[in-house]
Amino acid sequence: MKLKFAFLNLFLGCISLLLVNTKFTSNVKGEELKKFELNNEIKKGKFLIGLKQYLGGENDSFSKTKNINFITEKGFLNLISSNGIKHKSKEINISWVDIPINNPKTIEKIVFGPFASYESAKKQAEKLKDKGFETTVAYPKNWEVWIPFEDGFPEFELKNKISRKIKKFQITPVLRSEYSLLKLEGPIYIYAQENIIINGVNFGKNFYLLKDLYGTWTLVQKIEFDDYLAGVLPYEIGPNSPLEALKAQAVIARTWGIFNSDRFNMDKYHLCITTQCQVYKPPKITNKKVQKAIKATSNLILTYRNQPINAFYHGSNGGVSATAGESWQIQDYSYFNSIIDGSISLDKNFKLPFISESDINNFLDFDKEQFYGSNHSLFRWNKKISSLEIKEKLIKNKLININDDVFDLNSIERGFSGRVTKLEIQTNKVNKSIVLVKDDIRRVLNFIPSNLFTINKLSDDLWLLRGGGFGHGVGLSQSGAIEMAKLGFSYEQILNHYYRNAKLKKIEILSQ
Questions:
Q1: Entry pTM
Q2: Has residue 26 got a pLDDT over 70?
């Protein structure tokens, strides 16, 4: 065993503590931590969920005092660090310290974005990769695409910037005891037989601390598919939804998670817990109806050509569903069709595609009770927006400067379902207008519930948007699924309604 000692001036109660960097050359478990594969975990029926991101950095809102406290009420906690340190205790405290780098280095990259969604960022990354560039899809605050900076690069059509950052410090986790600090290296594995409380929140079992692309750290939980769904369904569709709607949500949440399990490959975990993935919170109590829905559909996913589908879903489609290609800058999937979301009799009243503003106004004026999901609070909506509100959003997104004023607002392109795919915002500057495309419309003008709307100019600086729905409109409408379940449709019928040509299939889990 070889020991290295390094001293840091840590002003914790004006006491200088000893930082010990311990390395074991024969620790098999420590080496195994570095080898775990994301794809293998999926095959075993487990997700790695990024519970808290950016730990130890400026955007760290979880360990505000740069400290994470792990407690178990029964039994013991176990910690294994990749540099061989093992620790067993009833309570574990990990702090973040900034260790100076002996030879600071400059990190240079070209950054594209921000993008409104992972889908749009991934599409751009694929285009750059096809041209021979090494790409990374990252999420420091918004979705971005990075390529390493090199002199002599050609000019890119897409908006980009050169990022240069001098790395002087390394954010390092340390195991804190009363008299010393032990330096840890990631991945760090923390587990117990019982549930673990982390900074006052009961999260469950089996955690990792992983270093991310940004020099900070992520608290990651390894969790079985069905346990993950127990923390998703109550927050995505609601625990009081009809059983058949909950079953449909369980299938698509499981399917979506598996299909999108490469979303955070760059940071060595599968999914986050926000609306950028699926909303997840550790369930405080067991909901019997939710558990029944998960058990009844255990390991069932939707497939197309024997592969998991990209099972998008949303709150309300306003009575007409969207194709993927009109919602994001990606290719269409054959299992998503633009349909009038209601009884078959509605097809006699409307013909897709919706092309003109009058088509959409007529649709919005129709008796909403005949559509599935019409009880949603944003099934129909009106928004008055001023030029000042639009200007503030454009300035915030660095699309105009403070001296520019908004002059007019026009939809210049619509998709098959009538959703606005190109929105032109004219300014008072000659030949200067901003065109927002697809998902960027709601990213920039985030007060708009959906892209299904018409524009009515009320005055020189005031517009009325008449619209329908909440969200992107692709795939299952949660409010529609709830109503279909109340009308007696089974979860299989609900899924077949929203995902045409997709098939239910039971996946094999290697650990079973």
A1: 0.89
A2: no
